[in-house]
Write a structure and sequence with these properties.
CATH topology of the largest domain: TIM Barrel
Number of strands: 16
Radius of gyration: 22 Å
Mean pLDDT: 91
Strand content: 15-25%
CATH architecture of the largest domain: Alpha-Beta Barrel
Number of helices: 17
Helix content: 25-40%
CATH superfamily of the largest domain: Metal-dependent hydrolases
Number of domains: 2
Shape: globular
Distance between the termini: 13 Å
Length: 468
């Protein structure tokens, strides 16, 4: 084991034991007795379903679950199995609905370097968006290791595969194989042709698997909503639906193969953005709200494109947390020259993105939180806070934004024991120092994180994100 890996191992081990300062050791060695309950006392519990904070309460945890919640201040039992929550707020562990833990295009190792960054930022659950059938073995091992306390990483609440194939039959075969390997959903990309998309939908329906992902470049938002495709990521085809020229522009992509349709879509972007139509956007939002599919807009991508920082990215203290090969990938993107026209387009895109989010939120379209981490500048864990803050800047209330990364995300994935604070739910929790319902930025002020019942105090969290 080289020095860097050895140091990282030591930091992770320290984090696993770091709850000793918050939860007293049962025998002076083990940190705490897993069979005994322990309590977070005098804490205000955030009800994300109703957007309100409780009076000071005591939350009892046992075996990685919430055992009970007692209103009022309840004196802890004799012994040190308690956390003083006075003046703190307890929120469910956050969920990032769009991450990439594998590097299938570049054939690099999985992004396990990102695991501690997620946890240190209160992200206790993720949806992995591009898993090959062979990689579901890795996902199963990560899940088991987190539950057993052997790995500091978010729960992979769902993992989906992408049926890239040369024919409709081959795409169907990938869907069926993925179902046998344990896929939770099927992911589609922009390059999928309408015919291939329908074949994938049919195969997924036969396997009782939802379809998430991009709305393909030659498919309209309305078609995807009626299909139904469960989620639409990155506002794909929403921009066209909110454009006065949108229908004609998509019609021009008809009959093209997938790559050509995407290339034409990219060429059309300036016209799409320039012809934003508020009335058309309102009509599209109402139609989507009626049909029911969820939008995962990943606004943080457009935000960083428009507000790209200048200077050496290595000056960011988080840079050292990236694996060396990831730093190289980011540099290739960030060092590419950005001319004035491209910058103006990025700024226009961000303006339209924000207007779309505001319009869709007003219409009642479910908007949930995802980041596309680790895209350049999208630091795992940190970026989910950026996403929530920008969603609020674009019109969501803090309560809606918090729900987008907790119960709303969990319910989409049919993980009803996550994303909420209730008896029987997973003990995946974040203690913060201020009320996020008043200011969403309070979610960054993390006092401690509880992951599968294990408590990480501030010192343990800092150890997770220390440079290797």
């Amino acid at each position: 084991m080289n020095a860097s890996r050895r140091r990282r191992f030591v930091l992770w081990a320290a984090a696993l034991l770091g709850f000793a300062s918050l939860v007293g050791a049962a025998d002076g060695k083990s940190g705490r007795d897993e069979s005994r309950p322990y309590a977070i006392t005098d804490v205000r519990v955030i009800d994300v379903e109703h957007g309100r904070a409780s009076a000071p309460s005591t939350v009892w945890l046992r075996d990685g679950r919430i055992e009970r919640i007692v209103p009022g201040h309840q004196a802890p039992p004799l012994g040190p199995h308690w956390i003083d929550g006075h003046g703190l707020y307890l929120v469910p562990g956050l969920i990032d609905l769009h991450v990439h833990l594998f590097n299938n295009a570049s054939h690099r190792p999985p992004n396990t370097w990102a695991f501690p960054l997620f946890v240190a930022n209160g992200v206790t659950g993720v949806r992995e968006m591009a898993t090959t059938p062979e990689e579901f073995t890795d996902v199963a091992q990560w899940r088991a290791a987190v539950d057993a306390g052997d790995l500091v990483a978010p729960h992979v609440l769902a993992a989906g595969t992408f049926p890239y194939a040369a024919s409709d039959d081959a795409a169907r075969a990938i869907v069926h194989t993925a179902a046998r390997r344990g896929a939770d959903f099927i992911k589609v990309f922009s390059e999928v042709t309408p015919q291939r998309w329908k074949a994938i939908l049919d195969a997924a329906r036969a396997e009782k698997l939802p379809v998430d992902g991009h709305v393909p470049a030659a498919v309209t938002l309305d078609e995807a909503a009626r299909a139904p495709q469960r989620t639409a990521e990155h506002l794909m085809q929403v921009y066209e639906a909110c454009s006065a020229h949108g229908q004609a522009l998509i019609a021009a992509r008809a009959g093209l193969d997938g790559e050509a349709a995407v290339a034409l879509r990219d060429q059309q972007e300036s016209e799409v953005l320039a012809t934003f139509d508020a009335a058309a956007c309102t009509r599209a939002a109402r139609a989507v709200a009626h049909a029911g599919p969820v939008q995962v807009p990943t606004v943080v991508i457009d935000y960083f494109d428009a507000a790209r920082p200048h200077g050496d990215p290595a000056s960011d203290p988080r840079w050292a947390s990236l694996r060396v090969d990831e730093q190289a990938r980011w540099r290739r993107v960030l060092d590419a020259p950005q001319d004035a026209a491209a910058q103006a387009l990025a700024e226009r895109r961000w303006d339209v993105t924000c207007r779309i989010v505001r319009t869709f939120a007003a219409a009642g379209v479910p908007l949930l939180a995802g980041t596309d981490a680790p895209m350049p500048l999208v630091y795992p864990g940190y970026a989910l806070h950026d996403e929530l803050e920008q969603l609020v800047a674009c019109g969501l209330t803090p309560a809606l934004a918090l729900r987008a990364a907790t119960s709303g995300a969990a319910d989409l994935l049919q993980r009803h024991d996550s994303g909420r604070i209730a008896p029987g739910a997973r003990a995946d929790l974040v203690l913060v120092e201020a009320d996020p319902l008043s200011d969403i930025r309070a979610l960054r002020r993390i006092h401690a994180v509880v992951l599968a019942g294990r408590v990480f105090d501030r010192a343990a969290l800092d150890a997770l994100i220390a440079p290797p």
